[in-house]
Design a protein that fits this description.
2 copies of one chain form a homodimer. Chain A is α/β, with parallel strands linked by helices. Helices cover about 25% and strands about 20% of the residues of chain A.
């Protein structure tokens, strides 16, 4: 027997996985142990720094409840959520790329007819969203579902403001017509900060980073026989496109929101047009 | 601008540290980000596995309260606590090696005269502990303090059983005499499981590991002009010496606990003798 030493610490811990009955758990924990020990050797934390880390990790869990998931937020700001999204959604270049789901999706948004308005208040700048859902060869997919959600003009989702916004405000599900076309009305989304009142917000500030996400509309697009895609459309020109707090931006998802100025009879409004391309399910 | 990709994920996140005002935080987070992304790329977690990890990490924090620190326990069973201890306590070969403090040290244990018994009940097998505290050259250190604690014969520390054990049971502080000698009475310690009713216990079981620590007595030894050492003495022959759940064992800390069988007039008892060697403070 040899005792625990700094040089062989990872190997000593790894050897204890020899009786692990679960092959996948053994594979995962082996990677965790190797990287954790390598990181500690690189950083050489003092005992005080280690206690600071223990306190931080504890607080992240204790900030979580039914409405708040601070560990997902930590995964988001370290780019881990986007990396896992990328690994699980490798697609050909022509397909619409995926991005993070985020914490504000709600199952069962109302099914609405094409052309309906998902805004249930009179706030915000009017917006028309339109486009087509296509297959790999550019052919229309009829009956594809688009599940859509976005923030209010104040930068909050309905579920964050149950007393101030009507339920299901700025959420809806639409189906493409026989030509693969969808269109609906909404308001122009705005950039907004992720929650900063917890330990993850403090870490973000400590690292000299801002908490903003560039303005976007969320989409989950699905159709029988195709792979679903969870994605956003980002507003071209937004000041946070290069520094999204959660790293969600991909070039192909940045689209112009075109302003149509107020005219004699009509108020100003925006239009955005985008075709989504799905891959055939494998 | 280029968007987030699987290949460049770590570099994209690292680039955001450029405005970090705290050099040490930047160094630590840079190592965290690099190893975290490398680990995710190695493991390629599914979205479901990632959610399992998020739930586990959340539960570890939510298991913590004033009496329980599940994150330290996780650090312990992954060998991280021992690695940080090793990094912060590099000593010459002749010095008594350190090992983990553990969660059960209590400040202000009673100061007792040499020869006193730290057991405040009549349970357990009697033990005499003795030895010397020496410097690097093997010279006696007079007036060195030994802060000592251990479990009851049932495998619990007094603070774990406030209703069943007297306060400060099996705790005491002693000072070496002019020849550097200490001696006190106690009971033979026993091996015991770390807490298994939380997420860390489930992980340990999932990895096919047992939760036991080999029997030991804790010591913090300090003297003016010398570096303090936090360590254990382990009972030679204990069945868990090769598989301590928290990796605390070092060869130099395993010592024989010698049985002296019952005689006509006297009950059986154990003796253990060990000299500790401190380094001069730098």
């Amino acid at each position: 027997m040899t005792g625990f030493t700094e040089d062989t610490s990872a190997e000593t811990v790894l050897a204890r996985l020899s009786e692990c009955p679960d092959g996948r758990l053994s594979e995962v924990m082996s990677s965790v142990i190797r990287h954790l020990h390598a990181m500690v050797k690189e950083v050489e934390p003092t005992q005080e720094e280690w206690m600071t880390a223990i306190r931080f990790l504890t607080e992240v869990g204790q900030m979580c409840d039914e409405r708040r998931q601070e560990w997902i937020l930590l995964s988001d700001i370290l780019g881990v959520s986007m990396l896992i999204d990328a690994i699980n959604n490798r697609k050909p270049a022509m397909a619409t790329p995926s991005t993070v789901l985020g914490p504000f999706h709600v199952e069962g948004a109302p099914e609405l007819p094409l052309g309906a308005n998902i805004s249930r208040t009179d706030k915000g700048e009017p917006l028309l969203v339109s486009g087509r859902v296509l297959d790999e060869a550019g052919r229309a997919i009829a009956g594809a579902e688009l599940d859509i959600w976005q923030t209010s003009p104040d930068g909050f989702y309905d579920v964050q403001q149950p007393d101030e916004q009507p339920a299901m405000n700025l959420r809806g599900r639409f189906r493409t017509d026989k030509d693969g076309v969808f269109h609906f009305r909404s308001i122009k989304p705005c950039s907004y900060p992720i929650p900063t009142d917890g330990p993850v917000g403090k870490l973000l500030t400590g690292m000299g980073r801002h908490p903003y996400r560039p303005a976007h509309i969320h989409f989950i697009i699905s159709a029988d026989g195709y792979e679903s895609v969870t994605t956003h459309l980002f507003v071209e020109g937004d000041e946070y496109l290069d520094s999204d707090a959660v790293f969600g931006v991909k070039d192909a998802l940045i689209v112009p929101f075109v302003l149509h100025p107020a005219d004699d009879g009509a108020e100003a409004y925006y239009t955005v047009e985008n075709d989504f391309r799905l891959c055939t399910a494998s």
